[in-house]
Design goal:
Strands 2-1-5-4-3 form a five-stranded antiparallel β-sheet. Strands 7-9-10-12-11 form a five-stranded mixed β-sheet. Strands 6-8 form a two-stranded antiparallel ribbon. The C terminus is likely disordered. It is elongated and about 170 Å long. By secondary structure, it is an alpha+beta fold. The chain contains twelve helices and twelve strands. The longest helix has about 45 residues. The protein folds into four domains: about 90 residues, no CATH class; about 100 residues, 2-Layer Sandwich (Beta-Lactamase), CATH 3.30.450.20; about 70 residues, Helix Hairpins (Orthogonal Bundle), CATH 1.10.287; about 190 residues, Histidine kinase-like ATPase, C-terminal domain (Heat Shock Protein 90), CATH 3.30.565.
Length: about 475
Amino acid sequence: MLVSAVLAAMRLPGTDSTQAAVLAVIVTILAATSVALLLVLVQRYRMVKDIIRWLRIRRMGEPERPPIVLAHAQLERLVREIQSLANASELERRELLVQSSYLQTLLACLNDPVIILDPAGIPVLSNRRAVELLIAPADPDSQNTLREFAAQAPVQDITRTALRSQSPISRQVRLAVGSRPRVLQITAAPISPGLEPRGILLLLQDQTELLQNVQIKADFAANASHELRTPLASIRAAVETINEAGYEDHVTLKRCLDIVGGHVLRLQLLVQDLLDLSRTEDPRAVVRYEPIKLEEVRELISSMFKNLAAEKHLDLRFEIAPDAQIMQGDERLVLLILKNLVDNSLKFTTAGFIQIRWLRQTRPARNAANKADASDTNATEDIIILEVEDTGCGIPPEDINRVFERFYTVNRSRGGADRGTGLGLAIVKHAVAAMGGVVELHSQTGKGTIMRCIWPQSRQPIAPRRPPVELTSASPAD
């Protein structure tokens, strides 16, 4: 009808057959035009679809040749530009991966804990050392623990100050890390690649042990000075008395010489204890693990203390279990431990007995990783136990947790005037630990004390022998 209307409007001359032929030609042209247009649209659709698929593949990081577009020069140029942009983006992505790898390696190798926070103060990255410091091994939610640490008031104050000043700051703060109070040196540095801060880096240094060691050294120097000052002052006073009274006054001379001799002996014992303590604390000292015949140890200790025990009318007893005749350890350290423990018991026991007992027992293995089968939950290990028991005055409950401190002495009323240097049990503690053991103390005031030293009897590599210890007369121990 549309064609007829067109022909009627054009009023072409001719017959009906002529008009029909013209109509057919027009219809053919219109159909061909529609088909050509449809093909062009389909071709364009396919090219656009290929470009989109190629872009998706490139976005996922998988390289692929770009689609070949020859039908239209503008589309082909568009594809080439997109390909160039994609190549530049791929280079930037790989560079970012390399930089990220550098950062991860750097954080992993740092000995100090490092935490990176976002601008809101939420931890986004941390290294292994930070996890070891702040997070307990059994903590199921480590990220929540990091957030709690960053939310503490001192940490927030440091981060806000660093963000405001846009410069690194450092402060020493006391914080509760887990259930332990710690002293941390925190350095906060803002991360600002542009004008707007993108986060903040926290560098942590645990200074708790360092400050404790400084305090221990200061206390040690003060206590050592005090211990040296008293006998030196007494010796000086005795010498001045001799000079004033003259050498003809034999009574005064003998009394003053006795005072000098007693304090010189005390100084000698103090120096010996200091040397023993230094050796047991030295991490470079070689500890030899070899078979020790405990019967020979018994004979040495008995010969050293039997006269002193007889003078005080005390029964010095020894008991070695049949399966504990030999132990693995350092004979020098074992003798040093026994010398101090037995002397300590003799000092504070006025009646009864002192018993040295050796036992061997089996207990569940504390470190199954060292066993041949780490998955064996029933793994056991042998232990050797040394017990020194006395019937002395005992240790008051308020002093039990402090008797292993250097120079700490219990009240003089506990055992008389000869109170010792206060280093004996400190020496025992470090000597036992040097051989991989622990010390236990059980005491009741007025009934006596049991000192128990426990060592695992695992196979240890044999180290070069150290020179034997010089066992002088028993040093006072508290």
